[in-house]
What does this fold into?
Amino acid sequence: MSSHGLLLAAYVPGSSLIHRAPLWLKFLLVVGCGMASFLIADWAVSAVVMTLLCGLFLLSGAGPARLLRAVRPVLPVLLAIGLFQWWQLGAPTAARIVLNVLVCVVAASILTATTPVQALLDGVASLARPFRRFGADPERFALTIAIMLRSIPFVAGAYMDVRDSARARGLERNPRALVLPVFISTVAFARQTGEALAARGLGEPEDPED
Amino acid sequence: MLDRVTVRVSVDGRPAPKTLLEELSLNLTERRIGVIGANGSGKSTLLRLLNGLVPPSDGTVRVDGADTVRAVREVRRRVGFVFTDPLSQLVMPTGREDVELSLRRSIRNAAARRAHAESVLDRFGLLPLADQSIYELSGGERQLLALAAVLAVDPQVLVLDEPSTLLDLRNRELLRRTLAGLRQQVILSTHDLELARDMDRVLVVDDGKVVFDGRAAAAVAHYRDLSAAGLPAPGGGPAGSGLGGLGGELAVPEQAGGRPERAGLEKA
It folds into this structure.
């Protein structure tokens, strides 16, 4: 299984300014970039934001190779979207949409490359703590984020494996041969993960005395 | 200590419900207990009962008095479970993070959690690999890591479902030594008969029934005979016709200390 082809950059230990920046600031960056992707109307502004974010990523010391690895899995999809938008709405709109998606991916990669997963989970859990009074379990919330981070590369890897085996059987043009096995292995993975979490007692409601 | 397993497990199926495990009653009190049997015989179902992953259709499973259905959280604190494929149980990208995840409920302070995780990894010789991606570890290292992540919370009982199936010879040996050194009660299913021989007591499961329960050597011999009985003859004859000198009957030596549930098998 080539499921370790990570979509987001894995944590790179370091002591750069970005590593030392408070977690809330990095969260804010990701949320801000997500919102900006809806608000920015000019592709040139998107390009500037993208350049700034790439600069921030490189400032963390994670390196250009990791940056490339983080964005590479989305490039084929973005290429397809870009071409379609170019045909439908013209080049500036296509460029803006593609760049805005890349902005979100790079911003999320800055967060994951400079924050240990446990710190990320602690941060998510403390952000979710105010919702406890409404019955939310902050630890479950954090665990959900962790599972999501783990599942994205799995699904991407499952797709690559299925594509390779479809190619080997000469079925690369058959969408059913690609989609169904990915769907089945994703469901199996979800069941396995759920069972493993249950066996380890993870994700269960908190004890009242905790 | 598993003080009582009195259960039957069946699942919905077509055309009729399928019984995965026939009615059985066991006290599992020995320090090292093995479960052997063919694929699909019910070994995993039996082990999953012990951690509450599978609820019994009838009867109860109790771990030191705690019912695996009514007190499942308590049971899971006491019983750690290791799966055959460590990748299906390691949730985090690196070993350090996965062990820390196990400790999140019990140790709130991040620094203390990290220190404890490092000590656990160090105990298993995994500290140098702590920050490596789980996908970059060898099969043996992953299995050890899965074991470390489960033992980090110090369960009383460790249940392992075919832990050596994906391991090479060297890593199997490493696993055997690691298991031998644990203070926990260990209950495992395996196809590795060498590993089964290390156990104090071995159950042989066949077609959803415990057909033998006794000392390791006798259980392994019983299992070998059982497996041979199910093989077609070299010439393609009917199943069970290849018993040759045994004359179609599989006798279990009395002196081996076993408690055979089925004294012999009739020739098919």
In short: Residues 238-257, 260-268 of chain B have pLDDT under 50 and may be disordered. Chain B is about 30% helix and 25% strand.
